[in-house]
Design a protein that fits this description.
The chain is α/β, with parallel strands linked by helices and 224 residues long. 17% of the residues lie in helices and 37% in strands. It has two domains: 89 residues, Elongation Factor Tu (Ef-tu), domain 3; 113 residues, 3-Layer(aba) Sandwich (Rossmann fold). β4 and β5 form a beta hairpin.
Length: 224
């Protein structure tokens, strides 16, 4: 099957707001491709300033439908376009790429993610769930209204997950979320556990350093 390296597709799409500033974009290129968990797709956009490209990680690929989780802002070029496009418009999909993929072994898997960087992590966890492999997810956001894909996570049988909201203070015990940030000092996993991190560059660097301090060596990440 092609990987969309040498061609572009004008695709139909649908969009849904999952939070005030995150949309789920579903794209149908009407063709079947090979998509490996963690890979990303590059879109070609055109606005008043001209043509530009922007890449987003694939959250899922089912029945020829590519799903993306995209944070939008009126100050970002692609954010403005995604806010304005209508259901009868088309989006131009360029290619799918990315070589940072899930390691094929039986080690315990732990994932750390924030915001829409959950997308590539979710694609990996979904694959492991279908293979009946137990996984752990630590998902950090700021506010309760920022939480996304919780229903999707609950459907994964072999996933244990915790959601953290750093802005929750007095009322954090009133919900199923955990106060403040992920505390790696509390991690108790086997030495050969595989860790996958999808975070901002600064937080990724800090997280890797803390994991190494605890003696973990199988740490994989891709910074965006």
């Amino acid at each position: 099957m092609p990987t969309m390296l040498d061609c572009m597709y004008d695709c139909g799409f649908s969009k849904e707001y999952l939070t005030p500033d995150v949309i789920e974009l579903k794209v149908n290129p009407e063709a079947q491709f090979t998509v490996i968990p963690w890979q990303f797709a590059t879109f070609v956009w055109t606005d008043s300033e001209g043509e530009f490209k922007r890449s987003y990680s694939v959250a899922s690929y089912t029945d020829w439908i590519l799903t993306f989780l995209i944070k939008v802002s009126q100050t970002w070029r692609w954010g403005k376009l995604l806010k304005e496009i209508k259901s009868w418009d088309k989006v131009t999909l360029g290619w799918i790429n990315g070589t940072f993929t899930l390691k094929s072994n039986t080690n315990k898997k732990v994932f750390l993610a924030t915001w829409t960087w959950l997308a590539p992590i979710y694609s990996m966890i979904s694959k492991l769930d279908s293979e009946n492999i137990n996984t752990f997810l630590y998902f950090w956001l700021r506010n309760r209204e920022d939480v996304l894909y919780e229903k999707n996570l609950k459907k994964l049988w072999n996933l244990t997950y915790k959601i953290y909201c750093s802005a929750l203070e007095e009322d954090w015990e009133a919900c199923d979320l955990i106060k403040w940030r992920i505390d790696i000092d509390e991690f108790e996993f086997p030495p050969l556990t595989d860790f996958y991190i999808c975070w901002s560059p600064a937080m990724t660097k800090d997280t890797i350093a803390k994991l190494k301090e605890k003696g973990y060596t199988n740490i994989y990440n891709e910074q965006f």
